[in-house]
Design brief:
Layout lengths: L9 E12 L2 E12 L3 E5 L6 H8 L7 E6 L2 E2 L4 H7 L3 E4 L13 H12 L3 H14 L16 H14 L4 E5 L7 H18 L2 E6 L2 H7 L2 E6 L2 E7 H6 L4 H8 L2 H6 L1
Parallel strand pairs: 3-8, 3-9, 6-7, 7-8
Antiparallel strand pairs: 1-2, 1-4, 4-5, 9-10
Helix pairs in contact: 3-4, 4-5
Length: about 260
C-alpha cells in the first residue's frame, strides 16, 4: 500500500486514516498522496469507502485516527475552517441537488459565491459568463430553477458553481452517473480541459474503471475501507498485482480490452 508522500508536494496527503461506523471499518489505515495539478482516480465497488474518504477530505466527516493535509496544511474542523477551505477545495456531488437549492433560482446560488469570495457582483457575473460559455450552457440558465433543467445541465451548473469558487482542488463523486454515454465523454473531456487550463487538481471518484482509465494519470483501488493497490493508471490496469483489482477489471471488459 502506498505511503503518504511529502505533503508539501501534494494537493492532498492522507496518512493512516481510520474511521469506524459501529462495527464497520469505513476507512482502515488509508494512506494516499495526490500530486498537485494531477488527475487522480479512486475506484471501488459500492461500500468500498471511497465516498467516505471524499467526505473526510472535505472535512464533512471526522476521522477517528490519522491525518489529512490539504496543500500542506493539516485539515481542521469547525465552521470557520470549513468556510476557509471552500475557497480552495470544491466538491461535485453525485446528486447535483446536493449543491443546488430547489427553492432558489440558479442566479441566486451563483451570487452567493461572490458574497463568500467578497468580490463585486459584476466581477462574479463576468467570470460566470465565461464559465457558462466554457461549459456549453446558455446565459439564460441562471434564471431557471434547478427542477427546470435537465440532469446533464444540472451537473454542469454544479460544476460551474464549483469553478466559480476558484478552487485549487476539484473532487468529483461519480461525475457521469445517470448521463448518456455521449454526454459522459463530453463531460470528461471538459473536466480534463479545465484541469489543464487552470492547473486544478482533479480527483475522480467512481465505480466505473473505464472512466478512470480514460481520464486519470494515477489511481487507487479501494476495498472494504482499504487501499489495496495504487499507482500509474497504465501499470495499474495493465498489470494489476492484487486479486481484487483483477476481479474489477474482469467485470469491465472495455477496460481489459484497452490494456
Amino acid at each position: 500500500m502506498p505511503a503518504a508522500a511529502d505533503a508539501m508536494t501534494d494537493a492532498i496527503s492522507i496518512s493512516q486514516a481510520q474511521l469506524r461506523f459501529g462495527e464497520t471499518a469505513a476507512l482502515d489505515g488509508v494512506s494516499l498522496a495526490i500530486p498537485n495539478g494531477s488527475c487522480f482516480g479512486i475506484v471501488g465497488e459500492s461500500g468500498s469507502g471511497k465516498t467516505t474518504l471524499m467526505r473526510a477530505v472535505l472535512g464533512l466527516q471526522k476521522l477517528d485516527r490519522g491525518e489529512i493535509r490539504i496543500l500542506g496544511k493539516p485539515l481542521l474542523h469547525g465552521r470557520a475552517a470549513l468556510k476557509e477551505r471552500a475557497g480552495f477545495i470544491q466538491p461535485i456531488f453525485q446528486d447535483p441537488a446536493a449543491s443546488l437549492s430547489p427553492r432558489s433560482r440558479i442566479r441566486t446560488l451563483m451570487n452567493e459565491v461572490g458574497t463568500v469570495l467578497r468580490e463585486p457582483l459584476a466581477a462574479t457575473h463576468e467570470r460566470l459568463h465565461v464559465i457558462l460559455n466554457r461549459l456549453g450552457l446558455p446565459p439564460g440558465v441562471v434564471d431557471k430553477y434547478p427542477h427546470e433543467i435537465s440532469g446533464g445541465q444540472a451537473r454542469r451548473v454544479a460544476i460551474a458553481r464549483a469553478l466559480l469558487m476558484k478552487p485549487s482542488i476539484l473532487i468529483a463523486d461519480e461525475p457521469t452517473a445517470g448521463l448518456d454515454v455521449s454526454v459522459q465523454g463530453d463531460l470528461l473531456n471538459l473536466l480534463q480541459d479545465i484541469r489543464r487550463s487552470q492547473n486544478i487538481t482533479l480527483v475522480i471518484i467512481s465505480h466505473n474503471l473505464a472512466i478512470v482509465r480514460l481520464i486519470a494519470e494515477n489511481a487507487a483501488v479501494m476495498q472494504a475501507g482499504k487501499v489495496v493497490e495504487a499507482g500509474e493508471v497504465g501499470s495499474l490496469f495493465g498489470s494489476p498485482q492484487d486479486a481484487y483489482t483483477r476481479e474489477l477489471l474482469a467485470a469491465w471488459p472495455s477496460v481489459s480490452a484497452a490494456r
